[in-house]
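Design a sequence for this backbone.
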């Protein structure tokens, strides 16, 4: 669920969960949204994905609890993953976490750590299970390099890195699992992966992600980095019904590193006639269900960040064929997996 659009970084490869950057598109109507603007932030698919709304912050109220319950009951969800923008900028993050936990969800978050040290202790008390930290640089120079040209400022970048380190430390101190997500664009990004593994505590689980925008070059770079570390594959994990999967590798010192894969999985009916439904253009496949709140206060459900025109208001989604299509795909895939185990 995208709970806020605001973010203090301007990463050049950001998909912003498929929605246009709200601050850059205020006053624009659907069809006029821009993928870049005065903030320096980007939404790489916004120029072509048919987005029809701008996202707004999610309030921690009874409606939020009801929405979560409706989706849980319709699709059997047990996990809620909070995204943005940057979730730690949401003033009611701990309250949102508590509401979701009370609705039976395991609550997770993807964060760049901006305000993590301030809010993670309260989120831990509210029931947050883990945080996936997006690490775009281990030095100020590395982080500045992947920011908008206006923000190629090493001093500013160093403040962001210091905040990230403090947020990771807060997770370790308060018993929240901490993962590091590193998007590897090409092999020039190898030094920051090696530096992360050498400098950060083993409590931080490291996950290497290929860049959707860099294709095979990104995948080749990750494989070379793993070879350089002497990593050996241990296990492969597939989640039935969504395109994400992971391979666990063990380093010679016993530390585990994860490689995140995107499988070529499609919704059998919804994706059938899509213009992106080929081996080149469909970059994420069916990654799962995403939840948004638009500026009119309506909850919107999406199934693809490259096809935001497929988003439906929650009530329309629940009465459409999509929930049954998603459930049928999940069931079929699960039955096809060898040696199924539930965790």
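Sequence:
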């Amino acid at each position: 669920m995208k709970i806020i659009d605001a973010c203090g970084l301007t990463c050049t490869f950001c998909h912003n969960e498929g929605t246009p950057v709200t601050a850059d598109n205020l006053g624009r109507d659907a069809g006029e949204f821009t993928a870049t603007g005065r903030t320096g932030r980007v939404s790489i698919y916004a120029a072509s994905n048919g987005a029809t709304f701008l996202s707004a912050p999610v309030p921690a109220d009874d409606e939020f609890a009801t929405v979560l319950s409706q989706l849980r009951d319709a699709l059997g969800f047990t996990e809620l993953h909070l995204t943005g923008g940057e979730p730690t900028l949401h003033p009611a993050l701990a309250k949102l976490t508590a509401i979701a936990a009370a609705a039976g969800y395991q609550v997770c978050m993807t964060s760049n750590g901006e305000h993590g040290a301030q809010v993670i202790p309260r989120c831990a008390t509210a029931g947050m299970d883990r945080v996936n930290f997006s690490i775009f640089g281990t030095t100020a120079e590395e982080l500045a390099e992947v920011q908008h040209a206006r923000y190629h400022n090493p001093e500013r970048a160093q403040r962001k890195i210091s905040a990230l380190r403090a947020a990771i430390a807060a997770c370790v101190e308060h018993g929240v699992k901490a993962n590091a997500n590193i998007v590897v664009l090409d092999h020039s990004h190898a030094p920051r992966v090696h530096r992360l593994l050498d400098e950060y505590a083993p409590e931080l689980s490291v996950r290497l992600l290929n860049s959707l925008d860099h294709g095979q070059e990104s995948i080749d770079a990750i494989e070379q980095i793993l070879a350089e570390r002497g990593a050996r594959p241990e296990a492969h994990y597939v989640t039935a019904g969504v395109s994400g999967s992971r391979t666990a590798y063990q380093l010679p010192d016993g530390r585990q590193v994860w490689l995140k894969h995107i499988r070529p999985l499609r919704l059998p009916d919804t994706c059938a006639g899509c213009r992106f439904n080929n081996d080149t253009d469909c970059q994420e496949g069916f990654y799962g269900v995403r939840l948004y709140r638009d500026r009119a206060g309506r909850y919107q459900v999406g199934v693809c960040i490259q096809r935001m025109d497929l988003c439906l208001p929650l009530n329309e989604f629940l009465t459409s064929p999509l929930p049954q299509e998603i459930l049928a795909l999940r069931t079929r895939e699960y039955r096809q997996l060898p040696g199924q185990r539930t965790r």
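Residues 231 and 251 are 5 Å apart (CA to CA).
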